[in-house]
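Attaching the record inline, Q. Sequence:
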Amino acid sequence: MRRAAILATALALALTGCVRVRPHQRQRLADPAMAAPTWPALERADEHTREVSEGSGGATGAGGGGCGCN
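Structure, as predicted:
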């Protein structure tokens, strides 16, 4: 009995991850309010990494090469 309940729960959880999103639902899911919150410090770090790796930023005073590994 317990084994069957565990198996049924695992099966239900496995099937809930597969969802087909219809085109008319995608607009609602793409709403900016649905975006995950970000931290300003993390955004600055990500921007710095992009600038260093792309070579698009200049004279920021940060060390490092073109690999973005600083």
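DSSP finds three helices and no strands in the chain. The helical segments are 2-16, 23-29, 40-54.

More tomorrow.
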